[in-house]
Design brief:
The chain has 650 residues and is α+β, with helices and mostly antiparallel strands. Helix content is 21%, strand content 26%. Among the domains are: 245-336, no CATH class; 495-649, Galactose-binding domain-like (Jelly Rolls, Sandwich). The protein has 13 helices and 26 strands. Helix 3 links the parallel strand 1 and strand 2. Helix 3 (75-86) packs parallel to helix 11 (436-456), helix 4 packs across helix 5 (146-158) and helix 11 (436-456) packs across helix 13 (467-479). It starts with a helix and ends with a strand. Bound molecules: flavin-adenine dinucleotide. Residues 71-77, 94-97, 102-103, 110-113, 170-171, 205-208, 210, 245-246, 248, 287, 341-343, 420-421, 434-437, 439 line the site of flavin-adenine dinucleotide.
């Protein structure tokens, strides 16, 4: 695919803009994003005029200002930045690597998983921003390239006019004023820039909590004692250990023998090392090549990296040359990570510390803003150096749980949020919340909450402790397709809620009026099939109509389609793993072509849609009726149209 086509195809779907009067039926993917212009270029490499006196002679000092500073461009930081920007917040995103995505980037290559437990809890794939990214990736990256995933994230970020992205830039200091973060310092030695960045709100999504450490935020590391939070799975005595870091590798099958000679410093491994670590395939390395949870995963990172590389090459030598795996003869390594993938270090302390008990009881919080659901996946800190034990224990989390806002901001720095693996959680709870789809929905919650704090001039704590602020936040999140378990969308500004609904038909329990019930997903049984319906379905071609007693002014319509949550959707993975349960294409049940008719006149015709949420914005119209005609879905042989929600706004 050409780069230009890729950018154009990204424009379809989620935030679709459509302007009647500037040409009739515009297909969704013809609406391209803003191509970076001179102003945008300035946001990619900002300069100061006049030049400021710099504390370092060869570095250019640049003063920048934003509403929200996000440090760290992993899944959490990217989602926080995009969601805030889409709420009108001016964001600076600082990322120390050359690529976005953190552990999911091609530099480390960890695929994004979450509440649906890689398909073991079907029906619970996260919605919202991470779903938008997953769907883009499935359609535009069927080749499962991690580099294309990086590029997708880059494209999404630079396409947001409110985000200034500083890549290869490390945040290293914070200036405080009356206990609040006033300014941070970041440096890019590649471009010889020092950035002094002032912001109203800050979000630490660095994983290691560097920003929070500089600000003096309360944190903790290691594993709590059982008695501290009454967690049955916690240790009797607290310690300083966490999960280790890993280096992944990939290998490829050739049509001829591929010999391998290890470096002299490779570790000698033996059969005894693999009693609990079976080698059954070797295409994408082993997550259990892990070390350093008993050291400092920050300060000892270089030493951990060296030892991990020794093990990687030692294991590959064992696979290739021990004679135990003759089928490896034509396989060769084609990539080895040079950055450690970190799992654990510090966790910041918020007003609530999420615990094992919270997760096991479903996290029924008034201030719920996101969901999690991965197991409490508790690795042995010494990793590969403990061949005598299983590398991890998957402690079950019985149901999808909610995560509270109070775990997403610092308890002692009033303008600091955190997003990602460093949220306020005990070691046990963090072993579940740390997976990247959960980090992503946390990021979306934080970005939206930060936007609300900035607009209303309140602190995160004030937001979390005020019922009407909280309701506003939860409703904003649900409107943006974020799942909060048990919380119903109920937006008084949405005209669709007061409409009379009629439709071309209904299939079983998938009634037409469910498009206005405020729930954006079905509740699934153990196999992923709905036990609680929240979508309308009818045979194709299908229509659904909204009628009002009085005329309404409408300038935005939002539709939420079905994207097959009963399946998994890995981001990204090796082709062999792409199965019928992970479709690298538009999802078959998603509405592809549809028309919106208002007061008898065609307002918009959309084709080739593959996104779950479509937003259509146009000049205001007065109408007493609105009809959606669905003519096609993406799957051949799928005979029905499904819509979860229709919203209409003035
Ligand atoms: C080998 C391995 C396997 C795993 N398996 C899975 C899995 O299968 N699925 C899954 O979803 N999760 C898995 N995890 C866990 C998951 O990858 C992490 O918990 C997750 O990446 C945390 O997300 P984050 O956004 O908080 O941090 P990260 O992904 O680490 O992103 C943080 C980013 O911030 C940057 N940064 C750090 N300091 C600074 C600074 N001072 N200035 C600017 N930028 C900074 C970092 O370089 C990084 O790019 C695994 C982890 C490892 C290591």
């Amino acid at each position: 695919m050409q780069r230009r086509d890729f950018i154009n195809s990204l424009a379809g779907g989620y935030s679709l803009a459509f302007f009647p009067g500037r040409g009739s039926a515009v297909p969704s993917n013809a609406l391209s994003v803003q191509v970076p212009d001179a102003r945008k270029f300035e946001t990619l490499s900002p300069r100061s005029t006049p030049e400021l006196p710099s504390p370092e002679p060869h570095m250019r000092l640049v003063d920048l200002e934003a509403d929200l500073l996000v440090a760290g461009g992993g899944c959490a930081g990217v989602c926080a930045a995009i969601s805030a920007a889409r709420h009108g917040v001016r964001v600076i995103l600082v990322q120390d690597c050359v690529r976005l995505g953190g552990n999911s980037s091609s530099e480390i290559r960890v695929h994004v998983i979450g509440a649906n437990q890689e398909g073991d809890r079907p029906g619970w794939r996260e919605s919202g921003l991470i779903e938008e990214l997953r769907l883009e990736d499935a359609v535009n990256n069927p080749q499962n390239s991690f580099e294309m995933w990086d590029l997708l994230l880059y494209d999404k970020v630079v396409s947001e006019p409110n985000i200034t992205l500083l890549l290869q830039t490390t945040l290293y200091a914070a200036e405080m004023n009356a206990g609040r973060i006033q300014r941070v310092m970041a440096r890019s030695d590649k471009t010889e820039h020092l950035y002094r960045i002032r912001a109203k709100m800050f979000c630490d999504a660095t994983g290691d909590s560097r920003l929070a450490m500089e600000a003096g935020a309360d944190y903790r590391a290691g594993r709590e004692a059982r008695a501290e939070f009454n967690e049955p799975l916690a240790l009797e005595k607290a310690d300083n250990e966490t999960l280790g870091s890993s280096i992944l590798f990939t290998s490829r099958l050739f049509d001829h023998p591929m010999p391998f000679t290890p470096p002299k410093w490779a570790r000698k491994v033996t059969k005894q090392d693999f009693i609990h670590r079976p080698i059954d395939s070797w295409a994408m390395g082993y997550w259990w090549i892990e070390l350093g949870g008993d050291l400092s995963t920050v300060a000892d990172d270089e030493r951990i990296r060296f030892e991990l590389l020794r093990i990687v090459f030692g294991i590959w030598d064992y696979i290739k040359n021990s004679g135990e795996f003759p089928s490896s003869k034509c396989w060769a390594m084609n990539w080895v990570g040079m950055m450690t993938g970190k799992r654990g270090s510090r966790r910041l302390l918020g007003d609530h510390v999420l615990t094992q008990l919270d997760l096991e009881s479903g996290g029924r919080f008034n201030d719920a803003v996101a969901i999690g659901g991965w197991t409490m996946d508790d690795h042995v800190p010494e990793g590969f150096n403990r061949p005598d034990v299983e590398p991890t224990v998957f402690n079950p989390v019985p149901e999808v749980y909610n995560i509270p806002l109070r775990s997403l901001y610092s308890r002692n720095i009033p303008n600091l949020f955190m997003a990602g693996r460093n949220i306020s959680a005990t070691h046990m709870a963090y072993t579940s919340t740390r997976v990247q789809a959960t980090c992503s929905v946390i990021g979306q919650a934080v970005g939206t909450a930060a936007g609300q704090c900035i607009k209303t001039g309140i602190t995160p704590r004030e937001l979390a402790s005020n019922a009407s602020h909280l309701t506003r936040l939860q409703q904003a999140l649900i409107r943006d397709d974020q799942t909060i378990k048990g919380v119903q969308g109920n937006d008084p500004a949405d005209h669709a809620r007061s409409a009379h609904i009629t439709a071309s038909g209904e299939i079983g329990a998938a009634k037409a009026t469910l498009i206005q019930d405020g729930f954006i997903r079905d509740i699934p049984d153990k196999k992923g099939f709905p036990v609680e319906y929240h979508h309308w379905a009818a045979e194709l071609p299908a229509w659904i109509q909204l009628d009002w007693d009085e005329s309404k002014q409408i300038r935005e319509i939002q539709l939420t389609f079905d994207t097959g949550f009963q399946r998994d959707l890995y981001v990204p993975d090796v082709p062999e793993e792409a199965s019928v349960n992970n479709l690298r294409s538009p999802q078959p049940e998603t509405v592809r072509d549809y028309t919106i008719t208002v007061g008898g006149k065609v307002l918009a015709s959309v084709s080739k849609n593959y996104q779950r949420v479509n937003r259509l914005r146009f000049d205001p119209i007065e109408t007493k009726s609105l009809r959606v005609d669905v003519t096609a879905v993406n799957g051949i042989g799928v005979g029905e149209a499904r819509i979860f929600e229709i919203r209409c706004y003035s």
